[in-house]
Amino acid sequence: MNFRFILAHAAFVLGLSVSNSLAQVPYGTQLGDDKYKPTIGQEGKDVIWVPTNDAMADSMLKMANVGPDDLVYDLGAGDGKIAIAAAKTYGARSVGIEYNKDMADLAARNAQRAGVDDKVKIIHGDIFVEDFSKATVLTLYLLPDLNLKLRPTILKMTPGTRVVANSFHMGDWEPDQVIGSGYPQGYFWVVPADVAGKWTIRGINGGKDDTLDLVQRYQKVGGTLTVGGKPQAILGATLRGKQLKFSFIDQSGATRAMDLTVNRNSLTGNVSENMPIYDVFGIRR
Ligand SMILES: C[S@@+](CC[C@H](N)C(=O)[O-])C[C@H]1O[C@@H](n2cnc3c(N)ncnc32)[C@H](O)[C@@H]1O
Whose CA is nearest to atom 19 of ligand 1? Predict the structure, then answer.
């Protein structure tokens, strides 16, 4: 598993760049305190410990727009640096889950030393056992196959939950945004609502019912809107959490913008653009 991480980081290991703050803390370096000194690259249950560098940690939290209303979970918390930064710099509450007991204890002491132990909780546990469903933001620095193993759980989280990973992808769930252009990169996703299926929608065509048929792959959405019996492809659909937006051409030939919020089996919103704004609501059939 050490080998897997090192392979995955081949570019990093081969070319520690001067701009990467880990260049000052290479593999084998000891950090920690007088009670416990972990070594960068040491074995962990599913992945070794390598701390996210300071610049990337900050970029990840910024990309996720972390603030005082957030509950950030760092899965595989190491020495707690991301959980601590989320609390100290961005005022969030945070939880770090770390399997290695010595490491978890160190992270808790680090949170205390940073003066944020009232906001940071460190759980000594396994990320594949502990419940992180209440997180509003998830941070990960694991491995591609671990991200994939977590993906089904992540996709069941509340739509709108932000997920940000150092270095590694989520398979064919493409990120909404990428952090950085060189190495390392970070990846950002927003958990999409489930919008697929056939919806009865009212508000476009007076009091009459129309049909919206949606197909979905993660945050990518397409489909057909049938207004007054005439089907047409929806245009430029975007889905970010619960917010679904697209355009369509109305019966007069004008482009209209649809802005909807999806809550499980109902949706509400409005249709506008060069027209009065009308309320729209719908239910999934
Ligand atoms: C690459 S380090 C990242 C540390 C921290 N998140 C950061 O970005 O600085 C991964 C951490 O996950 C821990 N870990 C490995 N498998 C784990 C598991 N199943 N549950 C919880 N922690 C785990 C390791 O001990 C290590 O501290």
Answer: 126
Domains in the chain, ordered, with CATH? Answer: 2-190 (3.40.50.150), 197-284 (2.40.128.120)
DSSP 8-state assignment for residue 229: T
Cis peptide before 175 (omega within 30 of 0): no
User: Measured from the CB, is residue 210 less than 6 Å from ligand 1?
Assistant: no
Q: Which of 36, 47, 72 maximizes ligand 1 atoms within 8 Å of its Cβ, making it the mutation to test the pocket? A: 47
- HSE-up of 218 (CA within 13 Å, CB side)? 13
CA of 78 to the centre of ligand 1 (A): 5
CB distance 72 to ligand 1 below 6 Å = no
The Cα–Cα gap between 126 and 76 comes to: 8
Per-residue pLDDT of the chain (285 residues), as tens digits, is: 456 666 566 544 443 333 344 444 677 777 899 999 999 999 999 999 999 999 999 999 999 999 999 999 999 999 999 999 999 999 999 999 999 999 999 999 999 999 999 999 999 999 999 999 999 999 999 999 999 999 999 999 999 999 999 999 999 999 999 999 888 899 999 999 999 999 999 988 878 899 999 999 999 999 999 998 999 999 999 999 999 999 999 888 888 999 999 999 999 999 986 666 778 889 999
Taking Cα atoms as reference points, which of 98, 83, 82 lies closest to residue 48? 98
